[in-house]
Amino acid sequence: MRAVVYRGPRDLVVADVDVRPLGPGDVRVAVDSAGVCGTDVRIFKGEHSGFANGTGRVPGHEVVGRVSEVGPGAAPPGLAVGDVVFVAPNIGCGVCAQCRRGNENLCPTTEAIGISLDGGFAQSVLVPARAVARGNLIPLGAVSSDAGVLIEPLACVLRGQDKVDVHEGDTVLVAGAGPVGLLHVALARTRGAALVICSEPSAVRREAAQRAGAAVVVDPTAADPYESVAAATGGLGADVVITAAPVHALQSAALHLAATGGRVLYFGGLPRSRPTVELDTNLIHYKELLVAGTTASTLDDCRRAAELVGGGRLELDWMVSDRYALEDFAAAVGRAQDPAALKVVVKPSLSRKAL
What we know:
Elements: E1 2-8, E2 11-16, E3 27-36, H1 38-45, E4 62-70, E5 84-87, E6 90-91, H2 97-100, E7 111-112, E8 124-127, H3 129-134, E9 137-139, H4 145-148, H5 151-163, E10 171-175, H6 179-190, E11 195-199, H7 203-212, E12 216-218, H8 225-233, E13 238-243, H9 248-257, E14 258-266, H10 281-286, E15 290-293, H11 299-310, E16 320-325, H12 329-336, E17 343-347
Parallel strand pairs: 10-11, 10-13, 11-12, 13-14, 14-15, 16-17
Antiparallel strand pairs: 1-2, 3-4, 3-8, 3-17, 4-5, 5-9, 6-7
């Protein structure tokens, strides 16, 4: 089959790879759509620790497809060949302290489809029996395949907003309006935030942030973010500040932009080559800020995200701006780094051209 293969930093090639045979309990999923996200861009640049020894591996962890083959033995309960499923990527060991708490994303030996295991930038992906048994294949019902790829980042966003308790009446500042920032805006509004402010330099993405539910959008290159947030909040600052872009200055500014008693979520990870920022921790101390971070998502997060989308509480199709054939993966990665793009999706069934 055809797949995107990691050969090293900035060397992802589309090549023929062997289709591995299925073992007992394994399931093969024919890929309909696979999302390109910031993690995939870091993999492409050689900045993702999970691909330090990843030569020959297939990335792609935001995957929707159809069950095409079941390994020897009985078919998994509730699944049949032809079913459209979202593939929850993270697979914990199931026995460590973190897994027992439901935090398989923090399992010291966690594996992930598209990170440590071959992923969805391919015509098909093999989902191992241990993931199938724990329910990592989530039926999608009426949700489109393209919107379905956003369930994985939405699950991460949901986990983050749970951590800082975004709730009714909050003023929320989302810094960055890429796909993840847009999901933060939309989810905050769904959770009852009274005011959502979004800071984003791209005009296309500022417009998208308004569509997602931001009442105030700020161009940080044209207006002072501190003054803009102060004007929107009567000088109080934001109850919740979410850094949804991997920008060092945003992380430093977040503590200043938060209201007294506010909550700060460091969501967008920084490059491995430069992972540190300078913070004024007196602001945490004297403003009694709660500062948190989250990474990835759990199976429960994915299930809840799928319910939000499947139940119609969040409509996500409009966030998909570009669709590419598998053979055009290089162009898809380039487009994902373009501030004029929203969500970029790779579709192996497409002919070789961007839609």
